[in-house]
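Notebook entry, structure prediction.
Reason for the run: the old model in the group folder had no record of what sequence produced it. Starting over properly, with the input documented here first.
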Amino acid sequence: MAQILWQLEVDDAGLRQRLNQWSGRATAAPGNAVQQAGVALLQNIIAANPVDSGRSRSAWVAALEDLGGSPPGGWEGSHPDPAAIADGASLGSAEFSDNGTHAEVSFFNGVDYIDLLEYGDIGRRPRAMVRRNLPAALAELAARLLEGMDRAES
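New structure, fully documented this time:
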């Protein structure tokens, strides 16, 4: 079975230590920033994922909803197949954990052809829904973490 698992981890013990040095207490929420970056990444993946029946998109939507996010309107496409959407939704998931020093978000799409959409195949160009959107997600995460540092300095 083909599948895509994406995982983002931030070990923020060093970040919290720097925030404590600047402000006397950590006011940033690195775990929250990790979760929000995961939500934003999934929203972008959903928008970039081609849609026919809605199966592969619905797996991403299930992961997004697991993280507390909402899918964009019309994500099902113009001719949604309710059975395919239900099937896809059962094949997607996400997890978030934050123990105070280590935050992690991971999501999974187990639709059997998701790797062909991401990486392509003979005669099919890759859609690179995940790989194309990773740089923006990492930039957003960095911006959120820096924003937390700026708040701690003021």
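Summary: Residues 4-120+142-153 form one domain.
The old model has been moved to the deprecated folder.
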